[in-house]
Write a structure and sequence with these properties.
The complex is a heterodimer. By secondary structure, chain A is α+β, with helices and mostly antiparallel strands. Chain A is built from 13 helices and 23 strands. Among the domains of chain A are: 192 residues, Rossmann fold, CATH 3.40.50; 63 residues, Dna Ligase, domain 1, CATH 3.30.1490.270. In chain A, the strands form six sheets. A five-stranded mixed β-sheet of chain A has the order 3-23-22-19-18. Chain A has a five-stranded mixed β-sheet with strand order 13-5-4-20-21. The longest helix of chain A is centred in the first third of the chain and has 25 residues. Chain B is mostly helical. Chain B folds into two domains: 159 residues, no CATH class; 162 residues, no CATH class. Chain B is built from 14 helices and no strands. Chain B is globular and about 65 Å long. Classes of the chains: A alpha+beta, B mainly alpha.
């Protein structure tokens, strides 16, 4: 394979090449190996990779107007490489950030010092739809509200930035491992020679984390993974994780509350449940407390949780800390709780509830990405440069109607990495989502789910919007 | 001990695959009759397929013997309905889709090899349609699909841990087999009574459905006698697809699983299984006597399914053991 037609653009950081076109030091081995492979070999490899995902049923679900479609996760077979030094920097920044976020949650559901000290406006916290008054005063083991965090990171010419903290039910880790398994078997010699750090032990780390949060001293607590069911977009991941951590995959209808405890229904009778790794949103967890029409959760669950008789991971109410408006204050939280400067920067964010930010946003819609604070997955956002005047006008009306519902950010110059497109290497925009675990201690596997915008020029990496996956190789020391 | 809903998923996965395999065998023989058999036999065959699935052919088909052209056109429609029709809950396509959907939900209880085997078969089926298989030899399609189910069964046998999950798979498989066997045998006897005693060509054909032709020739002779066919298919303990063997397996599996949380339903399931075993072991003399016995097996096997459901999957709360 040659890179003769590979386009470099100084506006975007390239993950493999320096601006002068020479490969970065830590990418040289990959680059030279790819040069030795013919395009036909790589195309065949890409086919094997896709076929493997198809036969193993590694899928996600996309919701159409009237039905849910199971789709194979597209995966690009060329790995993206991160050096050991870069990873150390990321690891430190992620650990620091999650520590501050957990302290923030303990604070806002407790004394709320950060609010009374005026660091974050009170309405930003209490007015957030994800703030759960039901969590006030609840004792959470080790004050770990967020035990599983999937942080979206992007790289620009200025370095890494946090784009989003996913603190509720972050997904994608199964694709990280699946990508690794299939790519390493297809690039076996290269993989061995690169001394890549493993990610396959994520399940063991998650299991250890969940066990640390069990409410009773048990050598083998009963852990279940609560899924919304087979039609959920991440159902494959739920199956995968339940298998990896040795948990029973349950739906709300498999559980019941009796005498202050949660039980699951087995073929031999009821079994008490200690830890629920829930992949169901807060709103649906308990119809007696949250949405009364929910059929996905368990009536009475919050009562058992508040009594300390079952652990919920992540804790309800963590969404207040990954709200798109509150996000802008995370660097301040780090300074406030830890007395440290943030190791990972935020993306400049305009909070439309602030009059000056609203004005700026409305005047510069064509240059900004505007997002609804309550949406995720790439839905409901306006990408200014790709929008028509009519779309901008309609969106502006919506922003004026409820400014607090929107934030705006500059269009990010997401870094690009070589992908195999139609048998040739082509630059595509990428981000990465590393997963951070925290029970008593913080654990991070050296890797991430790398999302790639497979459409030429697109900056939207979400799988539901034409994005795919890519393996990330974090090199050993 | 396993999650009730997962046990139920394994049970139904096995039932759907058994149903698909049964239909494949019937269809393979049926499309063979289209080559050279008289129209009367072709019509009989289609009616047998439908009645063994407790269904009737879609309205407008098989209304008259008509000509070859009408019958062959009807056959194409019926084959499509029984093979690929998503609205037909018992079509082979639907059985695979349901088996795969159940398997997808219980992937943690089955081996990776089982999932791969089933998913590959399902994906292959997704790429086919009736036009495609009708162009060449539809027999090969049905034989190949039955073969894929056999492969899945072999993979299951070779790779699955013999825990509760395994037992619920066996339970589903054998309860489905008893129900389908009773239905197809009853429809065969009913058709014989409707037609006349000379119309016995399909009894040999029926032996093939149960993989019993060689065993029959070995045990009796090449002369096919309905009473002997029934004796063999229902009572023979060495024939893998016999009703007796299936009932013996059900008894063994229920005993291995042990009583469920709803003890009354568990007991009822065991008692019912035992009484059906005894019924089959007693034997019968002649086709009419078998008709009555098979009628009871048909009804009781459905009750047995309900007892299993009540005992292990949907038991009432309040009286169960707490672990």
């Amino acid at each position: 394979m040659d890179f003769d037609t590979y386009e470099l653009d100084a506006a975007f950081y390239d993950e493999m090449f320096l601006p002068d076109g020479t490969p970065r030091g830590h990418c040289r081995t990959l680059y030279e190996s790819l040069l030795r492979l013919s395009s036909e070999e790589l195309v065949r490899m890409q086919e094997r990779v896709s076929h493997s995902f198809s036969s193993e049923g590694i899928t996600f679900t996309v919701y159409g107007d009237d039905e849910a479609n199971e789709r194979i996760m597209p995966v690009d077979c060329l790995p993206r490489i991160i050096s050991a030094a870069e990873w150390r920097q990321l690891e430190a920044g992620l650990t620091q950030r999650l520590k501050a976020l957990n302290l923030f949650l303990a604070d806002v559901y407790g004394p709320a010092r950060i609010v009374s000290d005026g660091v974050i406006p009170v309405d930003m916290v209490r007015g957030c739809p994800q703030y759960r008054v039901e969590m006030r005063g609840v004792s959470v083991p080790h004050e770990t509200y967020v035990a599983v965090c999937g942080t979206d990171l992007v790289r620009t010419n200025e370095g890494f930035h946090v784009l989003e903290d996913n603190l509720r039910v972050p997904s994608g880790v199964s694709y990280m491992v699946a990508n690794r398994k299939v790519v390493k078997t297809n690039l076996r010699r290269l993989y061995r020679s690169c001394r890549v750090q493993e990610v396959e032990h994520y399940g063991r780390l998650l299991r250890a984390t969940l066990h640390e949060l069990a409410p009773r001293e048990e050598s083998d607590p009963c852990v279940v993974l609560l899924t919304p069911g087979v039609y959920n977009s991440a159902f494959y991941e739920h199956i995968y994780l339940a298998h990896e951590i040795g948990a029973t995959l349950v739906e709300g209808r498999d559980l019941l509350v009796d005498g202050g405890y949660v039980y699951m229904r087995t073929t031999a009778g009821l079994r008490r449940v200690d830890v629920i790794y829930r992949r169901v949103d807060d709103d649906f967890l308990d119809p007696l407390v949250f949405r009364p029409d929910s059929l996905l959760g368990l009536p009475g669950l919050m009562g058992v949780y508040r009594a300390g008789n079952v652990a919920l991971v992540n804790a309800p109410g963590t969404g207040v800390a990954d709200d798109k408006s509150v996000y802008a204050y995370v660097p301040d939280m780090i300074r406030y709780y830890l007395g440290e400067e943030p190791l990972l920067g935020n993306v400049k964010t305009y909070i439309c509830r602030r009059p000056e930010d609203l004005e700026f946003t409305l005047e510069n819609l064509q240059d900004l990405v505007v997002k609804r604070v309550g949406e995720s997955g790439g839905y409901g956002m306006l990408v200014g440069p790709a929008s028509t005047p009519g779309e901008r006008e309609a969106y502006a009306r919506e922003i004026r109607g409820n400014p607090a519902d929107f934030i705006a950010q500059p269009v990010l110059k997401l870094s690009r990495a070589p992908c195999l497109i139609d048998g040739r290497a082509a630059a595509r925009h990428v981000d990465l989502r590393p997963f951070v675990l925290h029970g008593r201690e913080t654990r991070i596997v050296p890797g991430a789910f790398c999302r790639v915008a497979l459409r030429e020029g697109s900056l939207v990496v979400n799988s539901s919007q034409g994005g795919g996956g890519k393996d990330i190789w974090v090199l050993g020391e | 001990m396993m999650l009730s809903r997962s046990a139920q998923g394994l049970y139904w996965m096995a039932r759907y695959l058994e149903r698909a395999a049964h239909l494949c065998r019937l269809m393979q023989l049926q499309v063979e009759t289209l080559v050279d058999r008289p129209l009367r036999e072709i019509h009989f065959g289609w009616n047998r397929v439908y009645s063994s699935m407790n269904q009737s052919p879609p309205a407008g088909t098989l209304e008259a013997f008509g000509s070859d052209d009408y019958t062959l056109a009807d056959s194409y429609t019926l084959a499509d309905h029984l093979t690929f029709e998503p609205m037909n809950p018992d079509s082979i396509w639907n059985c695979f889709a349901c088996a795969r959907e159940n398997a997808r939900q219980v992937r943690n209880y089955i081996s990776a090899e089982m999932w791969l085997s089933l998913n590959m078969a399902y994906l292959r089926l997704q790429e086919l349609n009736i036009q495609e298989i009708w162009k060449t030899t539809p027999e090969s399609f049905y034989a190949g699909t039955a073969e894929e189910i056999n492969t899945f069964t072999g993979v299951t046998d070779a790779t699955m841990y013999r825990g509760d999950g395994w037992h619920f798979i066996q339970l589903g498989r054998y309860i489905e087999r008893v129900q389908l066997s009773a239905s197809v045998l009853l429809s065969q006897i009913d058709a014989r009574e409707r037609e006349d005693e000379s119309f016995d060509a399909d009894w040999a054909n029926l032996l093939h459905v149960f993989h019993a032709f060689d065993a029959y020739v070995h045990t009796y002779s090449v002369v096919v006698h309905p009473g002997h066919v029934l004796d063999l298919i229902v009572t023979d303990e060495m024939l893998p697809g016999s009703v007796r063997r299936s009932l013996d397996m059900i008894g063994a599996v229920l005993s291995a699983i042990g009583p469920g949380p709803a003890s009354r339903s568990s007991e009822e399931a065991s008692e019912l299984g035992a009484s059906l075993c005894a019924l089959v072991r007693e034997g019968r003399n002649g086709v009419k006597a078998w008709h009555a016995a098979l009628g009871r097996i048909n009804v009781d096997s459905r009750t047995l399914h309900q007892c299993v459901t009540d005992a292990y999957f949907d038991y009432p709360l309040g009286t169960q053991t707490v672990h």
